[in-house]
Every structure is written in C-alpha cells, then in structure tokens.
Amino acid sequence: MEKIWFAKTMLIFRGEIIMEKEWILRCEGKNIKFKREALLNYGMNRWGLNKAHSVDSTSELIRICAPGEFEEWEDFYFRNAKQRKKEGLKITREYIDELGKILYIKLSEIVQNELLSITEDECIDYAYNLVLNRTYEGYKTEIETIYGQLEEILGKKIEPAPDIWDRTYNVDFFIEVNRKYIGIQIKPISSGPALNQYQWNEMHRTNHKRFEDEFGGKVFFVYSIKKSERTKAIYNVEVIDQIREEIARLETLKD
Q: 246 and 149, same structural domain?
C-alpha cells in the first residue's frame, strides 16, 4: 500500500495534494499561497521576523547551495543557517516554529487591537493623503533633487519660475544669462524611455516657443528617473550639453 504522509500544511499522497488546510489558497511548485498572505507578510516585515538577523540571508545561502531539489535546500539551510545576532545561534526547525508563534501573538494581540481602534474617518484621511499629499511631496522632492544636481553640473544659478510662468509657459525653473532666460521643465518618469515623450513635447511646444520669443532662451525638458528609493537621476543626460550650448549662445549675444 502506498504511504500517506503529512507535510506541515497538507496531506500528500503519491506526491499529489489530496487535502489542504483551511488557510491554504493554492500551491505554486513548492511555494504555498496563503489566504491571508498580505496580513501574514505585513507581520513578518513589521517585526523583522524574516530579516537576516533572524533567519540569516536566505538569498545568499540558496545561491551557495544551488539546489536541484527542494530537499537539498532544506537540508543545507538547517545545517548552515545562523541568526545574525550577537549569539549567532544555529537555526533549527523548532526555531522557525517559534517565529510562527511570535507572528501569531503579534497579529492576534497587537494588530487585532489596532484594527478594533481604527475608524472610518482615519481610513478616509489616509486614502486621501496617500493618493494626493504623499504623491505631491514625492514629486516635489524629486524635482528639487534633480534641480540641485543640474545646478551643480552646470555651475549656474537655477531659480524657481514665477507661478505665472508655470501656468503660461509650463516652465518650472529658469537660468538667467545676459538678461535673457532659459526655461527648464522637470518631468519625473517611471522607468525606461519617457512615456509618450513625443506627445508631451508636442503638447508644450507652442507655450515653449512663446517663452523663447519673449525671453530669448529655449525651454528644455529634463526627465528624472528613480535609481533607488531615495536616489533620483537625470534620465536624458544629453540635455545637459544642450543647455550648456544655449548658455554659451546667450553669453555671446550683445545687449
């Protein structure tokens, strides 16, 4: 008779799942998707239960192991993993069980208490702040970061444009050269080439031409891109030389 055996989460027969526990949503290979995964993941992250100091660097260990089968990885992990704390204690199956118990206490006591105290008004305020206020502040921070980089590279004072220029010419900043002005518009983009960059340029071409006719200098788009959570960079770096050329041109003009 074929052996029926129990894994920690399910009953398996001939390698096939024949009965699942209530909290299992589905399996993707060896990975189990849990019904309340978002909540469980939140708890693990909030209290650092899945950090290297608690479970070692799993991404580093699995690359060292380079397993062909899950069982190889499981065996390697429990033979080599250590908590990255002062004691550097060896990680065991019992230790992982304890992490699960800690997670349960945190969720069932702390998070449950927080959920009971939350109000509808708090959720409304949070949604509004997240969608509008936080987006705006992130946008302003990104623009100011790029503006600072550009000022340092060019060695020229870059000043915020008056509100009327922003509304009329779509110009965020300007550089004064020989009593004439170069306009700069900074546009954050998600990744890769600027989305609809051609359409964006065309949409503002008329206003930028009006700016050039009135103030003597061209308007340049500077696209910024996130390199990391806190680092922004100029995406279209070729614009730096174009601005330099425009500065040089205006410097040669006579009054």
A: yes
The verdict on 149 and 188 lying in the same domain is yes
Q: Which residue has the tokens 């680092």?
A: 231
- By the 8 A CB rule, do 218 and 177 touch? no
Could you give the number of structural domains in the chain? 2
Q: CA geometry: angle at 62 spanning 27 and 73, to 5°?
A: 60
Type of residue numbered 248 = A
- 85 and 159 belong to one structural domain: no
**Domain for residue 6, yes or no?**
no
Maximal C-alpha separation, the chain: 100
Burial 192-231 (b: 16+ CB within 10 A, else e): eebeeeeebeeebeebbeebbeebbbbbbbbbbbbeeeee
Instruction: Identify whether residues 209 and 240 lie together within a single domain.
Output: yes
Prediction pTM value: 0.55
Q: Tens-digit pLDDT profile for the chain (255 aa)?
A: 344 444 555 555 444 554 467 777 777 777 888 888 899 999 999 999 998 889 998 988 998 989 888 889 999 999 999 988 767 789 999 999 999 999 999 999 999 888 889 998 988 998 888 888 887 877 777 677 788 888 888 988 888 888 888 888 888 899 999 999 999 988 877 644 444 555 556 667 888 899 999 999 999 988 888 776 667 788 888 999 999 999 999 999 866
SS3 20: strand
